[in-house]
Specification:
This protein has 90 residues and is mostly helical. It is built from two helices and no strands. The protein is globular, with a radius of gyration of 16 Å. The relative contact order is 0.09.
Length: 90
């Protein structure tokens, strides 16, 4: 069920569906580091108002993941993109 006022908008209810945060077009995909930063600042801190302990837990988990990805891909986390992150790593 979707309230009439939110029909055709994204989950925040203030921009049309399909328009990413910041209003850029869908043809330009944001980088992985930019998305990760937005996850912490917009999703956890602003939208969810997560506790400092929750944010620290996410931070520590992502640090471990990024260290693992750097070792596997031989590239710094700042240069990662989604196409390189795959569950088939073994």
């Amino acid at each position: 069920m979707v309230f009439k006022q939110f029909a055709g908008t994204d989950a925040r209810g203030d921009v049309p569906a399909g328009v990413p945060l910041g209003g850029t077009s869908m043809t330009t995909l944001p980088s992985f580091p930019a998305l990760l930063e937005r996850f912490f600042t917009e999703r956890l801190m602003q939208q969810r108002r997560a506790s400092p302990h929750t944010i620290s837990s996410y931070r520590d988990t992502f640090r471990q993941f990024l260290k693992f990805a750097e070792e596997r891909l031989h590239k710094p986390p700042s240069r990662l993109n989604f196409e390189e992150i795959d569950a088939r790593w073994s």
